Amino acid sequence: MSNIAFGTSVEDATRDSLAAAASAGVRVRELSELAELDEVYRLYDSIWRPDPKNPPVTTELLRALTKAGNYVGGAYDGDELLGACVGFFGAPAEVAMHSHVAGVSGAARGRNVGFALKLHQRAWALQRGVTAISWTFDPLVRRNAYFNLVKLAAVPTEYLTNFYGLMEDGINSGDDTDRLLVRWQLDAPEVAAAAARRPRAITLPAATIALGRTADERPSAGRSGDGGTVLVAVPTDVEGLRTTDPAAAKDWRAAVREVLGGLLADGARVTGFDRAGWYVLEHAAKGLV
To answer: What keywords is this UniProt entry annotated with (predicted)?
Structure first.
């Protein structure tokens, strides 16, 4: 195990943010002008293709959020907005924020623009005394699970069933909106290490498979075990399945809800996510404290 210490100060966070932006070839900055906020609205509209009656954000809402001191950040390549992130403050006693929505243009995929955005948000929050940020993501989307749990070192805290209700857009249509709520403890050593691009390596241990994956991309029931390490699989590409095999996508939603949601409700902790598509959980033996 490495004994290298990574800094958790505002200065360290700012340095890591600037390094991530440079690596992605973007400039990330806070946005507040009306024209900038309208760019964010139009970018999100191009990513999600939402029902016009229910967009992820509106320009007017973004204007109100920024006027109240909340966070809207954008990543630019020259004059082109490639990604944006929106967050707002939580209850005062929590010294926390909720990151409501973040998105990156499809043309910028693979450049780590999302990583640069989140590190900018982290530095911005630490500058204001905020020590934790929460957000939700779809537990079936493998790349998002890896990004959130490994690259950022966020920690799942709750499984939320059909959290947003029906969403008629280009990504979520036809599926329930189950989400994992995660907490990003900004001053935690593991988060600082991830921000410095030294995330904790995840290796699959000998473990009980609570939910597996068949060769034809169907969920395969395993067993819960009596404690210890438990693995829960997700599909390779659930977004593709929603188009090519909607029944399989629904089967995955139901299976992950039952197994992963059940394990979390039963006190298990997610300790990592393997790039091959496995949640790694530690589950105390029943009857033991």
So the answer is: Transferase
Beta-strand relationship, 179-185 and 219-221: unpaired
For 213, the token pair is 């994956």
Helix (H) or strand (E) holding 125: helix 113-127
- What are the DSSP E strand ranges found in 91-248? 96-104, 132-137, 155-160, 179-185, 208-213, 219-221, 228-233
Per residue in 100-133, pLDDT tens? 999 999 999 899 999 999 999 999 999 999 999 9
- Domain ranges in the chain? 10-195, 208-283
Q: CA 2, CA 146: separation in Å to the nearest integer?
A: 21
The secondary structure element, H or E, covering residue 23 is helix 10-24
**Superfamily of structural domain 10-195:** Gcn5-related N-acetyltransferase (GNAT) (3.40.630.30)
Collapsing DSSP to helix, strand or coil, 149 comes out as: helix
CB of 266 within 8 A of CB of 194?
no
Backbone angles phi, psi at 31, to 5 degrees: -115, 140
Whether pLDDT at 225 is above 80: no
**Residue 79 burial (CB < 10 Å; 0-12/13-18/19+)?**
exposed
CA atoms within 13 A on the CB side of 221: 4
Task: With CA atoms as reference, report the closest residue to 262 among 158, 109, 164.
Answer: 158
Angle between helices 10-24 and 113-127 (to 10 degrees): 160
Q: What is the pTM of this model?
A: 0.91
3-state SS of 129-146 is CCCEEEEEECCCCHHHHH
Phi, psi of 26 (to 5 degrees): -135, 165
- Spatial strand order of the sheet with 80-89 comes to 27-30, 71-77, 80-89, 96-104, 132-137, 179-185, 155-160
